Amino acid sequence: MSYERHTAIHPSARPGRRRTHALAAAGLLVTLLATGACGAASDSGGQGLNSASDDKAAAPAAAGAGAGEKSAAKTTDGASASPETASSVVTHIIRTATLTLEVKDVRKAVAMAHDAVSQGMSYGIVSEETVERLDEGREEAHLVLRVPQRDYERVLNRLAGSGKVLSRTSDAKDVTDQVVDVESRIATQRASVTRVRDLMDKAEKLTDVVTLEGELSSRQADLESLLAQQASLKDRTSLATITLELGEPYKDGKDPEEDTGFLDALSGGWDAFVTMLRWVAVAVGASAPFLAAAAVLVLVWRLLRGRLPQRRTTPQEPSEAPQAPPAP
Question: What is the pTM of this model?
Answer without folding.
Answer: 0.48
